Protein: Putative ArsR family transcriptional regulator
Amino acid sequence: MYSVTANSQKTRSAAAAGVPAGTVSSASGTESDERTRDRVRSAVLEHGPVSAAQLGSLLGLTPAAIRRHLDHLEKIGVIEVKLVRGTGTGAGRPARRYVLSSQGQSGLGNDYLQIARTALSQLVAANGKDAIKTFAENRFAAMKTRYEPLLAQAGDDVVLRAEILSEALSADGYVASSHKLLGTGPLQAVQLCQGHCPVLELAVEYPEFCEAETEAFSDLLGLDVRRLSTLASGGHVCTTHIPTGRSSVEGESGQAQLRSAGRQLR
Structure:
């Protein structure tokens, strides 16, 4: 009884304000859709490339509902479809997987993007292109300083160090994860993936950011790591290959041996 009365009061209040009948419930539905689409976008960011069925299961949505929201997000350019082969859907028949588009990536936390772009342009104009490299190295040197005490807790275990690094990156908004790959001996490795780049559009213009970040990871892990893909170069995630065939970090001499082993895998 209370809910009926409350709804009636809302309807009368809307009518008194000159709002057409049905607008209140419609607005509520729109807000609900927007919240659900935000959840879908976040799930695509965190789990992509991901199928519609997987998203529906993760979010508790019906196939019809998840398709409707995916279609809307694809239509406005926030997500896009990647066709993936070899997933058991039939010979030569690619499966549809969803990832965040470049537009969707750049729409996350870019309030100061134009200010940063202008500042970097002026930095290059005043000091030359090498100034960007120095700027990027300083930025990730600060990251290394913050992360080093966290990774030190893992001792010589490179796999655990990579896991802690992914957690630290996620806390800083990179939506990172680490995955141990199958392999034995020198073929053992971990892949570090980052689903979001807070400076994506700047990294597209200035690859020095990606280079400095890769070098920072190498220093933190004591290994010569290799970048397999980046968001800035068109990948759906940034992927870093971390060889773990020698899982110890033993000062400068140990790090040199680990870097040498990593180079042999290239």
